[in-house]
């Protein structure tokens, strides 16, 4: 507002001073009586207004644009009472159990207040993306008939000092007005990451404001703030202190039972053919997040519609899983014959080592290009595993190296196709050294901040592990070269090979030699 008034005054004085100058030097009529002193006076005022206007422009709280954008962002905060209950959240039983207490606090807050108990203010959900953190927060709001305010941490990150803090303030004001409320702040690490000497002032102010708000509320109104992050380790200690986000709940990827439940929730309203066995799909989707499973159910329905089917059958689900794993099938790919051969051997290399070392169950190998991949192996572990031995990790690395080793053994040439394999293999080796104490550096864990001081030693160790695995993989593959050739030839001809067909090829060769000594 202030800026607008200044702008109008500035415009008037600019017009007036231009008019007076023109009047003096070009002698328009009728204001010949103005003196140079008058002109100087008006010009000085104009200049003063101009300087004031420019200064105002640099002050963020008063910039119309900033206020405007804030308004828009506030409008994005969904002020509603979500129609989501715990029945919509599959799996995550322990978390739901813990949240029941919070729900009771909100639903019967007077009972607790009478006893002098304070209601928990902040809950932190952490874990990988797509695991249902937002869904859980909405369900808490749904179960307590609370207003739900969604905000993403990145919305508060602004260039101008004070804008983020102001936004936090207005978010809490709204929540208080409509209490009971659940405020959900996704990606809270965007504002709540550890403060250090290089921190920027704006982020610190925003975080401080959040802390102040959290310390101040709940005397009379019932508000629970739920934060979500993929990285708990990045958060500032101040945020995790008692009275703030002091309840931490890990929301992880679902196990086989939970995957089954999630698939059931998302196929509830879909017509399924008798061929669809949800528990089988759950077994084949190890490592998938809830969001990916929801996506699979939806994709399967879309594929069934495209094929003019009345019901969704197992083929639609298989195609949907494949699409989520490997991306869209590339129609009419222009892959050269030599490239195709390379890809066939590369994928056969992964499959051969995988089967020999019994790492995961191979469901399908394909050299039909999808997404960025020219070929791929779809596999799933026998069971959900939480512990891995050193040997198992080394075997995983060997399977990843299997593609490149096959290229080298057959073509005496290596390709760029192993890029992702090498990245994953290196990551496993690095974890073995820095997290699991499984290298010659000893039974130690190397914290992230100390990695840079030990980088040479770590790189040496990584190289040692990868080189050894590579050598073992080469030996294993040389010893079973015939199986490799058979699998690759089958792939070249048919482009796709199923788990059963792979078993048949293996069964033809009586004694695969499994001399991996790592
Ligand atoms: N446990 C679950 N039960 C049912 N559906 C789920 C579950 N987990 C995820 N989903 C589905 O996945 C979608 C995305 O999940 P959500 O947005 O809650 O994940 P998130 O953990 O908040 O992800 P991000 O960290 O990326 O924000 C949900 O809308 C829901 O359809
Ligand atoms: Zn590969």
From TrEMBL:
It is an enzyme of class 3 (hydrolase). Its EC number is 3.4.24.-. One of its GO terms (cellular component) is plasma membrane. This is ATP-dependent zinc metalloprotease FtsH. PROSITE patterns: AAA. The keyword Amino-acid biosynthesis does not apply. The gene is ftsH. It holds the Pfam family AAA_lid_3. Keywords: ATP-binding, Cell cycle, Cell division, Cell membrane, Hydrolase, Membrane, Metal-binding, Metalloprotease, Nucleotide-binding, Protease, Transmembrane, Transmembrane helix, Zinc. In the central section; belongs to the AAA ATPase family. Residues 119-255 form the AAA+ ATPase domain. It is found in: Cell membrane; Membrane. ATP binds at residues 127-134. InterPro entries: AAA+_ATPase, AAA_lid_3, ATPase_AAA_core, ATPase_AAA_CS, FtsH, P-loop_NTPase, Peptidase_M41, Peptidase_M41-like. Acts as a processive, ATP-dependent zinc metallopeptidase for both cytoplasmic and membrane proteins. Plays a role in the quality control of integral membrane proteins.
């Amino acid at each position: 507002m202030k800026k607008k008034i200044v702008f109008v005054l500035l415009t008037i004085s600019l017009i007036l001073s231009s008019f007076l100058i023109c009047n003096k030097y070009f002698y328009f009529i009728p204001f010949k009586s103005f003196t140079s002193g008058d002109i100087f006076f008006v010009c000085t005022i104009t200049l003063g207004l101009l300087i004031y206007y420019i200064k105002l422009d640099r002050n963020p709280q008063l910039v119309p644009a900033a206020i405007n954008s804030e308004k828009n962002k506030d409008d994005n905060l969904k002020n509603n009472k979500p129609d989501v209950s715990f029945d919509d959240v599959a799996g995550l039983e322990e978390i739901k159990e813990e949240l029941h207490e919070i729900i009771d606090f909100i639903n019967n807050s007077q009972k607790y207040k009478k006893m002098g108990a304070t209601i928990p203010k902040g809950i932190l959900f952490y874990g990988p993306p797509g695991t249902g953190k937002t869904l859980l927060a909405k369900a808490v709001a749904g179960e307590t008939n609370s207003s739900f305010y969604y905000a993403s941490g990145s919305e508060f990150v602004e260039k101008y000092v004070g804008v983020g803090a102001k936004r936090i303030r207005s978010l809490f004001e709204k929540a208080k007005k409509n209490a009971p409320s659940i405020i959900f702040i996704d990606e809270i690490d965007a504002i709540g990451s550890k403060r250090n000497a290089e921190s920027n002032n704006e982020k610190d102010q925003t975080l401080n404001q959040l802390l102040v708000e959290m310390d101040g509320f709940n005397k009379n109104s019932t508000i629970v703030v739920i934060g979500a992050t993929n990285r708990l380790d990045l958060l500032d200690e101040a945020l995790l202190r008692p009275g703030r986000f002091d309840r931490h709940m890990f929301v992880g990827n679902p196990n086989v039972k939970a995957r089954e439940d999630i698939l059931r929730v998302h196929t509830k309203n879909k017509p399924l053919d008798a061929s669809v066995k949800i528990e089988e799909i759950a077994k084949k989707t190890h490592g998938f997040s809830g969001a990916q499973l929801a996506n699979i159910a939806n994709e399967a329905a879309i594929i069934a519609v495209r094929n003019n089917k009345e019901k969704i059958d197992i083929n639609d689900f298989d195609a949907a899983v494949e699409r989520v794993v490997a991306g869209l099938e590339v129609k009419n790919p222009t892959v050269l014959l030599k490239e195709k051969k390379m890809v066939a051997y590369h994928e056969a290399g992964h499959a051969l080592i995988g089967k020999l070392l019994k790492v995961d169950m191979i469901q399908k190998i394909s050299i039909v290009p999808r997404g960025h991949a020219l070929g791929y192996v779809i596999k799933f572990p026998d069971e959900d595993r939480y512990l891995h031995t050193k040997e198992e990790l080394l075997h995983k690395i060997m399977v990843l190296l299997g593609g490149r080793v096959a290229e080298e053994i057959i073509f005496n040439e290596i390709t760029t196709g192993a890029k992702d394999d090498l990245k994953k293999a290196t990551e496993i080796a690095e974890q073995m050294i820095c997290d699991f104490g499984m290298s010659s550096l000893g039974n130690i864990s190397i914290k992230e901040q100390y990695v840079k001081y030990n980088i040479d030693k770590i790189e040496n160790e990584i190289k040692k592990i990868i080189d050894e695995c590579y050598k073992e993989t080469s030996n294993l593959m040389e010893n079973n070269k015939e199986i490799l050739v058979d699998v690759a030839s089958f792939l070249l001809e048919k482009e796709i090979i199923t788990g059963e067909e792979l078993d048949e090829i293996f069964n033809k060769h009586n004694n695969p030699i499994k001399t991996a000594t790592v």
